[in-house]
Every structure is written in structure tokens, then in C-alpha cells.
Write a structure and sequence with these properties.
This protein has 310 residues and is an alpha/beta fold. It has helices at 9-16, 33-40, 52-64, 79-84, 102-106, 131-137, 140-151, 156-169, 175-185, 197-207, 210-224, 238-251, 286-291, and strands at residues 23-26, 44-49, 69-73, 91-97, 225-235, 274-276, 299-305. The chain has 2 domains: 9-103 and 210-305, Rossmann fold, CATH 3.40.50.150; 126-207, DNA polymerase, domain 1. α3 links the parallel β2 and β3. The mean pLDDT is 92.
Length: 310
Amino acid sequence: MTGHIPVLLEEVLTWLAPQPGETCLDATFGGGGYTGAILSCGATVWAIDRDPDAIARGAALAALHPGRLHLIEGGFGDMVVLLAARGVSRLDMVVMDLGVSSYQIDDPARGFSFRDDGPLDMRMARSGPTAADLVASLAEAELADTLFRYGDERLSRRIARAIVAARIAAPITTTRQLADIIRAVVPKDGSGIDPATRSFQALRIRVNDELGQIERALAQAASLLAPGGRLVVVSFHSLEDRLVKQFMIAAAGREAAPSRHDPRGMLARERPEFALLTRRVVTPGDAELARNPRARSGRLRAMQRLEAVA
């Protein structure tokens, strides 16, 4: 499994605490870094990925652990259905890495990065509309809204206007074409971040319905955990981390109490089903960042299902 360095691996293993005989779901198999480490602890792993290339790469790892790694092609937002079809309804652990796999980023043919020219694709699965399809079809206002909502791009209207003007002259079909259009209207700032970065992120999120997948996956993962089961999620930008944080706070009953003037404040609060394992977000340390600069935006949060009350 070369080419992929799992982010916050030591911390993931600390909070998952896998034991021999336990069952884990790696909901975003990717390069298999988490799965390989969990298998080494003696647990059984079910691994989901909607990228058929990732599933194909996983065959070698499965051969090293006969009967303990089960690979499933599909979206992690459908985990309940995917697992139920295989007779699995309870798990001891679920781990999710919400980032794009290094294999996907580093392959120009996948169209996730503008570092090398390639087709403007960005699909994690090999089906559905591509980023080029969105760039060609979205109305200017909707395109601007997409860039602002999913990329936090302040100049989204200016970029959308430039894209619409450019696509009238010629179809926008490659990563370099799109990046150059954006760079022409967005000045560089002192951050060192390429002007096209936020727009590429926004298009990728929309192409893959990433936020919808995350929302569905969080709820389903919680429903699958047995008493004592652990959920660990690693996210890579504020939109993802906000969803994870809000979900875990609510599941652990840590939401702020209603105002004393709110009638809901008179109601008894139900005993929460989960406890937060991480009261604050966990981030990579200096040693990990030196080994893997791509880990710099990693954010880990974890929670555990409480034991049932007798």
C-alpha cells in the first residue's frame, strides 16, 4: 500500500483501541492505511470505498489476512444497506477518513488536482456527472453559490462570471484550463495557497455530494455501534469538521441547554447514548507534519456508545 500515508494513525488507533476478535468498519478504505493497522491488532475489518481502484488495490491486503478483510464497493453514506446485505448489523468500531486519497490526488487522470494537467473529472466513483459537466451546465448564479458555499471563496461571483465567459468561447475540459481561468481573475495573496484551490475543493465536494454522504454516514455509523463501540472521524476542512463536531456534541447530549424562558427547558433531558472521547479536536503533531505535510489540515474527533442501562 505504497503512495498513501494515513493521517493521525497513532491517534486513530488510540481512540479505536482495536482488540482481537472485534469488528471494525473502515468506511473510507482509500489507501488502506487504517485498515492495515487495525488488522495487525487482530480485528476483523469491513472496508467500504466507492472508488473501484481502491477496492482493487485492497485485494493484496485481503490476501495477507484471510477471512478478516472484507471489501465492499459503494458509498459510505449507504453503509447500513451495504453491511446488511452481508449479514452485518453491529460493529465495535467505525473509522472514517473524509479526505481525498493520495492515490486520487496524485493521478492526473482523476482530475482532482491542478498540479498536473488532466481531464476535469473529480469523481470518487466512476459514474455520474463530472466537474466538467458542472462547469459546462450550471447557471452563473448557481456556480457562484457552489464556489462560495463549498469553497468559502470570497470572489465566487467574479470566478463564475469568468468561467461562463470562457465556456462560451470553448469547452472547459481540463484541470489546467479551469485553473488558468481562475488564476486570471483571482490575485495571489500572502498565504501561498494557489488561487484555484478553493474552487477546486468546492467543485469536488459538489460532484461527490461529500457533505450529504458525511451526514448520512455519521447517523448510520452511530446506529451500528454496539455498546462500548467507538466512532473515530478524521476530517480535513471546516465544513466537514463542523458536521462531525455538531453531530457528536448532540449524540453525547452536550448541546447547550435551552434558555430558562424557553418551555423546552422544563423537559427532562434524556440520558445520552454516547460520550465524547475527545473533548477538543485532535490535530497532527510536529513530527507527523515533518513526515507528511499533507496531514496539516487533519482534525480528529471520537465518541463512544455508552453501555446499556440495566
